[in-house]
Amino acid sequence: MPGDGFASNLFILTGAPGSGKTAILGRLGNEFRCVDEPAREILAEQRATGGRGTWDQDPSLFVHLLLQRSIEKYAMARRSEETVVFDRAIPDCVVYAVLAGSNPTPSLEAVDVYRYQPHVLFLEPWSDIYQTDQERIMSFDDTMSFSKSLRDVYERSGYTLVDVPRDSIADRATFVRMSIARFGAIGTKGGT
């Protein structure tokens, strides 16, 4: 049943593409173990090897690889007692599967098996900071729809969303840091 078996030391920072997750995690990397977003890793690997598992070539394969990598990252972090903060997590794979037109069932099943801290730090789309790049090609309007779907997946999966305010990177990082302390992280990088 969703909501059971949460891992209190595994935090998720998620939200719309380009909403500032990576910048915030850059500020927290000396305090917590931060796990990079797997999507960019997979895209880089697939392009470097001539693989077809990219959003523009084979979106279903991309989603499969994304879920597989997300589970691997979860399993590695789960073995640790330190506080870990993920840039996206397994529930995000559900939204990617739906967008790709592929079967979301494997992602939905994984959401029930691999549980994180029940409070998820969530960033809404923010037009003032949104930028596209070689990997981030989604329009800002599409990020709004993505965000709505993401919020729905997390809430239906039994997570409580904590909205990170639109503020400076430093203030947002402080908010995330304080939220982690508030929700009972059991240890930080290098100690408990």
Helicity, as a percent range = 40-55%
Mean pLDDT: 87
CATH architecture: 3-Layer(aba) Sandwich
Note the gap between the termini. Answer: 30 Å
The total count of helices amounts to: 7
Main pleated sheet: 5 strands, parallel
Helix/strand order, N-terminal first: EHEHHEHHEHEH
Q: Output the radius of gyration.
A: 16 Å
Shape: globular
Number of strands: 5
Low-confidence stretches: none
User: What is the class in the CATH system?
Assistant: Alpha Beta
CATH H-level superfamily? P-loop containing nucleotide triphosphate hydrolases
Total domain units: 1
Identify the strand order in the major beta sheet.
2-3-1-4-5
**Residue fraction in strands:** 5-15%
The name of the CATH topology is Rossmann fold
| Strand-pairing-aware structural class | alpha/beta
Task: Give a structural overview.
By secondary structure, the protein is α/β, with parallel strands linked by helices. It has a single domain (10-182), classed as Rossmann fold. The chain has helices at 21-28, 38-49, 59-78, 90-100, 105-113, 140-156, 169-182, and strands at residues 10-15, 33-35, 84-87, 119-123, 160-163. The protein has a five-stranded parallel β-sheet with strand order 2-3-1-4-5, with helices on both faces. The model has no long low-confidence stretch (mean pLDDT 87).
